[in-house]
Amino acid sequence: MGRYLEATAEVFPVAGSFTISRGSRTEVVVVACSITENGIKGVGECVPYTRYGESIDGVLEDIRAVSHAVSNGIDRSELQHMMKPGAARNAVDCALWDLEAKLSGTSVASRVLTASPKPIVTAYTISLGEPDAMAAKAAENASRPLLKIKTGTQDDEARLRAVRAAAPHATIIIDANEGWTEHNIGHHFAVAKELNIALIEQPLPAGKDAILAQIERPVAICADETVHLTTDLTALRDRYDAINIKLDKTGGLTEALVMKKEAERLGFIIMVGCMLGTSLGMAPALMLAQDTAYADLDGPLLLVRDRVPGMRYEGSLVHPPEPELWG
Predict the structure, then answer these.
(1) CB-neighbour burial class of residue 81 (10 A; exposed 0-12, middle 13-18, buried 19+)
(2) How many C-beta neighbours within 10 Å does residue 205 have?
(3) Which of 246, 249, 260, 261 is catalytic?
(4) How far apart are CA 133 and CA 182, in angstroms?
């Protein structure tokens, strides 16, 4: 029967709204890709991100453009050269991983890990808002071990103090989403150090972060929007202490595994993150996150509904996917 590829856009409503420094959203549109061979279907998911010049229509077009190559049996290695890094390649790459697992009866975990995958702690994200609202959300989730706080305004001190007071025992990560400037970053760093913040993600805009190599960094700084390719890593060592690996940036699990290995060699702290998506997008990322310092795979917890079956979350503990979902 051969192989054939399908790609569709799907909408999942957000529970309330999700706000970062660049804006708010009440729904997430994902692109699901399936590759079927002899009645066996492998699946993958991606989230096109406008910050990186992606759109739903553009990603669907890019996926469908490789349909003929997929039908002719292209493998993941060849895919890396045929498609550029980004969301579209992620969906196809993860669908191929899943298809290989189902056709061979050998799980993805057994191929990429040295031991059986374990449940891991994920960060829980608190959207950007007024200090009182963020504190209230933090109080609701104060028992979670790891909170990720969206910031990125001209003055986030009140937000940080309010959240820390509401969740005094949680490990806290700040994600400024490129929203700070060279004029306020020193002040925010000082506040973060005082409040025992563990990590700060992407405080300055990508390409405008040279000052990070020149000033004291009292808290570990993590590159997100700045890092996409494995070849980016060496040039970031003077400015960043950590990197956030997302499959929608690397273009799939195949390249993400390469990036992780190189990041470890270079001594970076590693976070595995996600876009706002469903369990299908989280499943391959959980394989990558097994032995990393931080995981931010809470996408399904922020949605009204998830896929069925989905990943199993117990508080902030996320369990490995069942084969019916992926892998």
Answers:
(1) exposed
(2) 15
(3) 246
(4) 27
Active site residue 246: yes
State whether residue 213 is helix, strand or coil: helix
> Would you say 10 and 73 are in contact if contact means Cβ atoms under 8 Å apart?
no
Q: pLDDT of 188-198, one tens digit each?
A: 999 999 999 99
- For residue 178, the model assigns a pLDDT of 94
Q: Is pLDDT above 60 for 56?
A: yes
Please identify which of the residues 102, 137, 148, 150 carries the catalytic annotation.
150
The answer to whether residue 44 scores a pLDDT higher than 60 is: yes
Is 224 annotated in some ligand binding site? yes
Whether the per-residue pLDDT at 292 is higher than 90: the answer is: yes
What is the model's pLDDT at position 1? 56
CATH of 3-107, one of 3.90.1680.10, 3.50.50.60, 3.10.120.10, 3.30.390.10: 3.30.390.10
pLDDT score of 16: 84
In the chain, CATH 3.20.20.120 sits at: 112-318
